[in-house]
Amino acid sequence: MSIENKKRRDFIGLSFTAVAAVGGLAGLVAMKKTWDPLPSVKAAGFTTVDLSAVVEGELYQTQWRKKPIFILKKSSDMKPDDSRDVVVGDARYTVCIGLCTHLGCIPSFKNNQFICACHGGLFDASGNATFGPPPRGLDIPPFKIEGTTLVLGEVGPEYEKLVGKA
Ligand code: FES
């Protein structure tokens, strides 16, 4: 065998080894993905929020199952609403899905009310529909309270009480 042929053969051998190594690595990554829970399953389950970190009078937004969630710690100038408020200790919170019940736009929060610019719908700070086409207040997502933690996606007695009253 000539030296030129040996070099070519070595090169081809190394190339196969490199391709096999990359393939093996890709296989390991695929196996790891199979072992891990799917990211969408993790995200689709629950969203937890530490309510003690929510600033009074300021709208806090998060997501649960890809839906916007509004959390508002009510300030003293906001009317209490026993049919919708989530009460934790001395604090009252509005917890609702941030999608207008008319056609699903995301309202903004200004001057203690939720304003849906799409067709002029208004909701008060508790999420009750007060003006325009929205047929009902902002929907309350299923939740549970654990100490000062709000667990979105689990049904607790506080949620059942609100839904029963609503
Ligand atoms: S979508 Fe909000 S008022 Fe129409």
Word description of this protein:
The chain has 166 residues and is α+β, with helices and mostly antiparallel strands. It folds into 2 domains: 1-35; 42-162, Rieske Iron-sulfur Protein (3-layer Sandwich), CATH 2.102.10.10. 30% of the residues lie in helices and 30% in strands. It contains 3 helices and 11 strands. The protein has helices at 3-35, 39-45, 157-165, and strands at residues 47-50, 59-64, 67-73, 86-88, 91-97, 108-110, 113-116, 121-124, 129-131, 143-146, 149-152. Strand 8 (121-124) and strand 9 (129-131) form a beta hairpin. Mean pLDDT is 84; it is low at 32-42. Its EC number is 1.10.2.2. Pfam families: Rieske (PF00355).
Query: What's the name of the CATH homologous superfamily of the largest domain?
Result: Rieske [2Fe-2S] iron-sulphur domain
Count of spatially separate domains: 2
Ions, cofactors and other ligands present here are: FE2/S2 (inorganic) cluster
- Dominant shape: elongated
Strand content: 25-35%
Cα end-to-end separation? 88 Å
Number of helical runs? 3
- Element order, helices and strands? HHEEEEEEEEEEEH
Main β sheet profile = 4 strands, antiparallel
> Considering DSSP H and I runs of 4 or more, what fraction of the residues is helical?
25-40%
- What average pLDDT do the residues reach? 84
Rg over alpha carbons: 27 Å
Query: In CATH's first tier, which class of the largest domain applies?
Result: Mainly Beta
SS elements, strand count: 11
Structural class: alpha+beta
